[in-house]
UniProtKB/TrEMBL annotation, chains A, B:
Record's signal peptide: none
Keyword list, A-Z: Amino-acid biosynthesis, Cytoplasm, DNA-binding, Methionine biosynthesis, Transcription, Transcription regulation
UniProt entry tagged with the keyword Hydrolase: no
Similarity comment: Belongs to the LysR transcriptional regulatory family.
Top-rank taxon: Bacteria
Keyword Transcription regulation included in the entry's annotation: yes
Record Pfam families: HTH_1 (PF00126), LysR_substrate (PF03466)
Ranges where the HTH lysR-type domain occurs: 5-62
Protein localization: Cytoplasm
Designated name of the protein: HTH-type transcriptional regulator MetR
Lineage: Bacteria, Pseudomonadati, Pseudomonadota, Betaproteobacteria, Neisseriales
Length: 306, 306
DNA sequence: CGCGCATCATGCAAAGCGTTCATTGATGCA
DNA sequence: TGCATCAATGAACGCTTTGCATGATGCGCG
């Protein structure tokens, strides 16, 4: 007796189409490429049909694959709704979710995620704690926030961290900058440049903390609040910057400025959602985190979920 | 990391409610009672909620259980539709399904099943081969039928048998018949009675083949085409009958006649669908069998699926 | 009251699914 | 042509689900 169709298979098909490849789909699902390959083979054997053409970029579904995808698109949201409802039955529909952010750029993805979340949990009070804060976890302890977006886990803190995603921080140069010829930039390359950053403490700037300070490099500095303003300064050769790739992707596509990896392996940042342990199990908290991860995965280029 | 919700769980909930008990649900799903018990426990642990009240007959769902049931009712038909569509993609939407029956009463459940099937497979020509036939399998070999409903598997025949269900054949007596006092009837009890049957060869009557002939009992005989006519004769004390319990259940409920088991263990019949091996894998054939099993399981009292 | 029956839970042994790791083959790019 | 990417496959191992045997509990009936 062959194994029946399961939601697992629908999740696989959906991920396959979203990511456009078996390996990427596997990563999205927190599975291995091998597992997915086996799983797909088993599905195809069961149906006696192939589900997609392997040798084509982008990936192309057969009619049977398309029908399965249609089923996924129909069923998976219904399952999501049901799970949320069950969460509400357990924890109640109401609550508060005051969010503290330490990074400027986070608003780019936070707003869409909140827009997605709000109609699902109309009775949860959703707010952003105004301003930027060097220490969201502190705000949580003072009960002035319920969830903080942070870039480092401090295991000593009594909070629960939900991993969000990992992204590359790239150096941004004017298109005709002399360093634009390089394939990658090193710490020393910044020595004679003006580094343009957000006006926040150096500890919150990964490029300083992880690259320049260890190398003893102290470039000239300049700051601006807005991403677009920073880019404008870079384009007009007033300096260089180091920003998340996803934050500047649209500008890169239009060749407004040039991006280069920082260091041999590239420089990467990570983001986590910090919540009080007592609230980590709440249905709407978990769903908020899932919503953030889902919206970011589909809208931010070049990130990888943690 | 806890295991995610799967269709398996939804099928379990649906079966649980349909059958009204864990053990019966397990049988319906071709699993053990143990497996379902474990599965339900794991589900409840995962949600942190109980899904149904164990100590209550009939089984009562908690709100969370009801929500899961609603999801099942929503999702499982969609999955069924998709699987049928994929079957159509593989085997085509058209075909023919000429059905040969050897037993009179089968029409009671065959018609509803056909009504269910027809809209799902509008391009499959669905017919009943007219009249009753002692040998449906023969008709299949002569290519005059595509599927036969038979009560015995002849392993020597080159056909594929799909098991349908098992049912009890009960003796039917007038309410004030002297034998109505017994808890069960034996072969000898028929010796001085008139046995009323359908007008078919004795080999097709289980009560003759399995009970009376082995005991050398030859009661007086009378026959009628229609179930209701047989019952009318029984009620008016013209004789006794032996019919499938599910065929007479509505009359028993109204106490029109009295039913008693035949023999110590009761007398049981089984039904199979016979098809040519080459057609056993066709999507619409499998779906027809599934449809029959499903409609019979839900509409015929006292049967057990094989 | 105790017996039997029906029903569900539970502890321990076998399949199924996923993982790791290695390997191969196919494809596209320089 | 060589190199990188991607997917398929196979085998050994571990965790999860299922099965089997048994035990607990509740209910009806004498």
């Amino acid at each position: 007796m062959s194994t029946a169709l399961e939601l697992r298979h629908l999740r696989t098909i959906a991920a396959l189409v979203e990511t456009g490849g078996v390996a990427r789909a596997a990563e999205r699902l927190n599975l291995t490429q091998s597992a997915l390959s086996h799983q797909l083979k088993q599905l195809e054997d069961q149906f006696g049909l192939s589900l997609f053409e392997r040798k084509s970029q982008p990936l192309k579904l057969t009619p049977a694959g398309q029908r399965l995808l249609a089923l996924s698109d129909q069923v998976l949201p219904q399952v999501g709704d049901a799970l949320r409802d069950i969460g509400r039955i357990r924890d109640g529909a109401a609550g508060s979710l005051r969010i503290a952010v330490e990074c400027h750029t986070c608003f780019d993805w936070l707003m869409p995620a909140m827009d997605e979340f709000r109609p699902r949990w109309p009775e949860v009070e959703l707010d952003i704690v105004s301003g930027f804060h060097a220490d969201p976890v502190g705000l949580i302890h003072q009960n002035e926030a319920d969830l903080g977006i942070v870039s480092e886990r401090d295991e000593a803190e009594p909070v629960h961290y939900f991993p969000l995603f990992r992204y590359e921080i790239v150096a941004l140069l004017a298109n005709d900058h002399q360093l634009a010829g390089r394939t990658a930039l090193q710490a020393e390359d910044f020595a004679d440049e003006t580094l343009i950053t957000y006006p926040v403490p150096d500890d919150m700037l990964d490029v300083i903390r992880q690259v320049l300070r260890p190398a003893g490099v102290q470039p000239r500095r300049r700051s601006s609040e807005l991403t677009v303003a920073i880019l404008q300064l870079v384009a007009s050769r007033r300096g260089v910057a180091a920003l998340p790739e996803w934050a500047v992707a649209p500008y890169l596509e239009r060749r407004y400025v040039t991006a280069r990896p920082i260091g041999e392996q590239g420089l990467f940042g990570e983001l986590y959602a910090a919540v009080p342990p007592s609230r980590a199990g709440l249905a709407y908290v978990e769903d908020f985190v899932d919503t953030v991860r889902a919206t970011c995965a589909s809208s931010l280029p070049g990130i990888s979920l943690l």
